[in-house]
Amino acid sequence: VQLQASGGGLVQAGGSLRLSCAASGSIFSFNDMGWYRQAPGKQRELVARIGSGGSTEYGDAVKGRFTISSDNAKNTVYLQMNTLQPDDTGVYYCNARKYYTSASVNYWGRGTQVTVSS
């Protein structure tokens, strides 16, 4: 399984970016997919997740500003980030998860840097 993240960059506060995560196979094979981020000196945290049935979950810091979506035909998950703030700066990682009877397996893509200037 390979996850290729793209779309990061430098943006001014108040601006927008869209991240993409392309999976090497069908995203239907995963129970859910999502984005996590890690700022310097901080732990990795959940940004947003989307289940195979379309349910979504967001971290408190991004609710109302970020939207996660998926395009099954393209095996790609997107993260639309609006009204970006300097605190959104960090490395954003794509994640895919499969559940088994007694365990879950996580797959991670390489991160993409998002920098928001004030």
Descriptive notes:
31% of the residues are buried. The strands form 2 sheets. Strands 2, 4, 5, 6, 9, 10 and 11 form a 7-stranded mixed sheet that branches. Strands 1-3-8-7 form a 4-stranded antiparallel sheet, with no helix packed on it. The chain has 118 residues and is mainly beta. The protein contains no helices and 11 strands. It is globular and about 45 Å long. The model has no long low-confidence stretch (mean pLDDT 95).
Counting helices, strands and paired strands, the structural category is mainly beta
DSSP strand count? 11
Order of helices and strands: EEEEEEEEEEE
Runs with pLDDT <50, length 5+? none
User: How many helical stretches?
Assistant: 0
Shape: globular
Radius of gyration over all CA atoms, rounded: 14 Å
Give the overall pLDDT as a whole number.
Answer: 95
How does the major sheet shape up?
7 strands, mixed
CA distance, first residue to last residue: 37 Å
Proportion of beta-strand residues: over 45%
Binned, the helix content reads under 10%
Condensed summary:
The protein has strands at about 5, 10, 15-25, 30-40, 45-50, 55-60, 65-70, 75-80, 90-100, 105-110, 110-115.
